[in-house]
User: Which sequence fits this backbone?
């Protein structure tokens, strides 16, 4: 008897696994999930480096000749880069200095022009991923574009999640008048087709990164609201919440300290679904000129440039932006799937 | 339904009232004297307090008279009448095709659940969904229309038949291909849900063959969530494929809204938003009624 009691006591300190560590354990067993996590982390490191300027800082520099070919294509003839020379007039120059009213000033201008140092760095014929119309490095643009697109997607998703969670928690927890009012707001926002809602918001606010985030955040919170509300209705009458009430926890404490951790896995999965959706939306908005301003680059503005480039056979900017986007979004989507499986073992 | 519609009207009104630019200044253009702006303001009733303006707005909506577009001077009601057919010519075939293709495909994938076929199709679907819609349109238009010349690059005519046979096929094919991946993935989960139920096991125990189980038993039950999803898509067909319309210059409603956003043409945006919201609600109501026919367990309140 004594031996049994001792082992029981000895086992007690090993606490039961928390929901997060259990989920992590399940996620690690999913090979695809782990691989996708690696890809996403690699992208995040790349974005971080791009933000501090370690890589792709000079994406605006004209490093190559216009439409420089990708390196693996070799130095094929680049017609567009040489067209400048072809346009030069043929035949001997005609002397018109007698009738040219500006002729006396030419010498003075030449002298002045000499005083200004113009350094034109040597432009390379090929770049790893080619160059765009102005000779900017497509690889650097893709990295910088990844930074902006993912930044917008993540922040808009965080904003939508915050709005949806707070409203959903309020509606689900309190119910009654507040719940009815929020249900009404929800119905209003879902009655309007999503794209129209985005357009209506885009029509009244200006253009820019911050407005894209605000538009996507303000229009995209409805799905999360619905789920969080349902969870809060379920949880608010459970014993542990009543116990919290009995020891004097305030409404806010019960909502966000006691219930929130128990529904956070739902929110996390929804957040990552929103990130994917919002990156796609940002790309489309930027493509239409309703998104990021001209002096910035995102995957959407790259695609907008690529559309005209493709007609003259310059496909690398399109391919590069598509490749970056496809790799990131596929990894992120599959990671979300793995995350959902890991967090909710009942579902499968 | 009425409170929701009232909410939509309020949302649109206050959105444009407080965040939008001054309509009088937009209308008057870059060079305008203060007098001109003031007179426009009087005409539009902008010198009135906001509740009077709201009342004017509500009267416009209820009388279906939104006045004229600011930029093209076209009657807003006329815009609806002339743009909607073009949108529907493209969108109805897309919706029918994608649902009819996705259901058998999803059934096939669900049948092979857990095998390599299933896993690889799911991954291909995710990969397909990760590439932007834009890329499919750009490449498709370039390849099939510009390079191979199988279809016209863009265009539209007055005859419905010519539109449907000449100009619409490429947009329809592209849009269907793009939406096939997400729909297959979604319907697969619906089918898997049903296959896990007890009645399927009972049917198997009775000795029914898989084909009969899948087509008679599972399909009928899985159609209920599918119907819900299609009902969600339905309102989208009126403004849905605005990207398709922009790329192929199809004079549809979606393209009109996009142009209106770029021109700050408030009456068009407001009218389209409110009427499409109303239409959405009517469709949702119709779907609820339809449920009763599909699923006799549903009781309408």
Assistant:
């Amino acid at each position: 008897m004594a031996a049994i009691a001792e082992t029981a006591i000895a086992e007690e300190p090993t606490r039961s696994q928390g929901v997060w560590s259990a989920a992590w354990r399940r996620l690690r067993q999913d090979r695809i999930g782990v691989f996708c996590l690696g890809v996403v982390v690699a992208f995040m490191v790349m974005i971080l480096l791009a933000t501090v300027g370690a890589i792709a800082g000079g994406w605006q520099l004209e490093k190559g000749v216009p439409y420089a070919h990708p390196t693996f294509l070799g130095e094929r003839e680049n017609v567009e880069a040489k067209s400048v020379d072809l346009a030069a007039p043929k035949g001997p120059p005609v002397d018109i200095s007698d009738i040219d009213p500006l002729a006396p000033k030419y010498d003075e201008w030449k002298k002045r022009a000499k005083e200004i140092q113009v350094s034109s760095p040597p432009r390379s014929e090929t770049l790893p991923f080619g160059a765009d119309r102005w000779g900017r490095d497509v690889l650097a643009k893709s990295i910088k574009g990844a930074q902006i697109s993912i930044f917008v997607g993540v922040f808009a998703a965080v904003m939508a999640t915050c709005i949806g969670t707070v409203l959903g928690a309020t509606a689900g927890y309190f119910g009654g008048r507040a719940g009815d009012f929020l249900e009404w707001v929800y119905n209003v926002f879902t009655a309007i087709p999503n794209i129209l809602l985005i357009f209506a918001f885009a029509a009244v606010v200006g253009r820019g990164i911050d407005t894209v985030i605000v538009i996507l955040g303000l229009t995209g919170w409805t799905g999360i609201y619905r789920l969080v509300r349902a969870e809060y209705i379920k949880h608010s009458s459970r014993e542990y919440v009543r116990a919290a009430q009995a020891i004097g926890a305030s409404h806010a404490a019960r909502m966000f300290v006691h219930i929130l951790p128990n529904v956070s896995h739902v929110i996390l999965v929804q957040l990552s679904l929103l990130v994917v959706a919002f990156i796609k939306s940002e790309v489309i908005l930027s493509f239409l000129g309703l998104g990021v301003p001209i002096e910035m680059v995102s995957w959407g503005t790259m695609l907008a440039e690529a559309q005209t480039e493709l007609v003259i056979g310059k496909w690398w900017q399109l391919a590069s932006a598509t490749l970056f986007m496809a790799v990131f979004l596929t990894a992120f989507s599959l990671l979300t799937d793995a995350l959902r499986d890991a967090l909710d073992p009942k579902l499968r | 339904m009425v409170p929701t519609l009232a909410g939509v009207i309020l949302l649109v009104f206050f959105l444009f009232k407080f965040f939008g630019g001054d309509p009088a200044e937009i209308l008057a253009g870059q060079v305008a004297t203060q007098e001109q702006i003031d007179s426009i303001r009087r005409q539009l009733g902008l010198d009135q307090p906001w509740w009077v303006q709201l009342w004017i707005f509500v009267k416009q909506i209820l009388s279906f008279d939104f006045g004229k577009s600011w930029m093209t001077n076209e009657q807003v009601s006329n815009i609806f009448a002339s743009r909607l057919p073009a949108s529907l010519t493209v969108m109805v075939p897309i919706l029918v095709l994608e649902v009819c293709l996705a259901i058998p495909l999803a059934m096939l994938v669900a049948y092979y659940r857990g095998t390599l076929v299933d896993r690889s199709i799911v991954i291909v679907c995710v990969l397909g969904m990760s590439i932007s819609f834009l890329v499919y349109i750009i490449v498709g238009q370039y390849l099939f229309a510009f390079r191979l010349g199988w279809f016209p690059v863009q265009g539209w005519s007055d005859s419905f038949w010519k539109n449907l046979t000449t100009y619409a096929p490429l947009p329809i094919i592209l849009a269907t291909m793009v939406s096939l991946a997400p729909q297959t993935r979604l319907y697969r989960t619906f089918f898997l849900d049903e296959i896990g139920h007890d009645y399927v096991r009972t049917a198997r125990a009775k000795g029914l063959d898989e084909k009969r189980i899948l087509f008679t038993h599972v399909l009928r039950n899985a159609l209920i969530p599918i119907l819900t999803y299609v009902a969600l898509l339905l309102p989208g067909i009126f403004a849905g494929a605005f990207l398709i319309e922009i790329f192929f210059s199809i004079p549809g409603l979606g393209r009109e809204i996009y142009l209106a956003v770029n021109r700050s043409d408030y009456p068009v945006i407001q009218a389209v938003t409110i009427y499409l919201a109303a239409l959405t609600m009517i469709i949702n109501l119709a779907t609820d009624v339809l449920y009763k026919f599909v699923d006799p367990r549903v009781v309408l309140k």
Q: What stands out?
A: The CA atoms of residues 151 and 331 of chain A lie 16 Å apart. The first strand of chain A starts at residue 64 and ends at 70. Strands of chain A lie at 64-70, 124-127. The radius of gyration of chain A is 29 Å.
